[in-house]
Design brief:
By secondary structure, the chain is an alpha+beta fold. It contains three helices and five strands, in the order αβββββαα. It has one domain. Strands 1-2-3-4-5 form a five-stranded antiparallel β-sheet, covered by helices on one side. The relative contact order is 0.15.
Length: 109
C-alpha cells in the first residue's frame, strides 16, 4: 500500500492522515480524539493500534472505523477483504502430540 492511497482513503472518510516515516502512518481527527497508528507493510500485513491498546492485524477500513466508530460506512474497501472465504478441508485426526519424555516412555513400553 502506498501513502497516497492511504491518505486518499483517510481524507475521504473525513479524517486527517499523517506520515511519521515510510513505515509508520497515523490517522488523526476522530471524534474520540484517539490517534490510530498504522504500519501498512509489516510482516503480518496491515497493523494498526488505537491509542494505547495492543496493535491488531486488519485492513485500512478497520483502522478508519477504529478512528471514527460512529461512521456507518467506509468509502474505501480493501480488495483483500473482498475475497471469498476459504473452504475448510477436514483431515483425519492426528495422533495426540506429547512431550519428549512421554514419547520416550511410550517407545519403551
Amino acid at each position: 500500500m502506498t501513502y497516497e492511497r492511504f491518505s486518499d482513503a483517510v481524507a475521504g472518510a473525513g479524517l486527517v492522515p499523517r506520515k511519521c516515516s515510510d513505515h509508520h502512518w497515523q490517522i488523526l481527527g476522530g471524534p474520540s480524539e484517539e490517534t490510530v497508528n498504522c504500519w501498512p507493510n509489516s510482516k503480518k500485513g496491515f497493523r494498526y493500534q488505537v491509542g494505547t491498546e495492543k496493535s491488531r492485524t486488519g485492513t485500512l477500513g478497520d483502522a478508519i472505523r477504529a478512528a471514527d466508530p460512529y461512521r456507518d460506512c467506509v468509502p474505501w474497501v480493501d480488495p483483500v477483504s473482498m475475497e471469498p472465504p476459504r473452504t475448510v478441508v477436514a483431515y483425519p485426526p492426528e495422533r495426540e502430540r506429547v512431550g519428549l519424555i512421554r514419547w520416550f516412555w511410550r517407545l519403551l513400553w
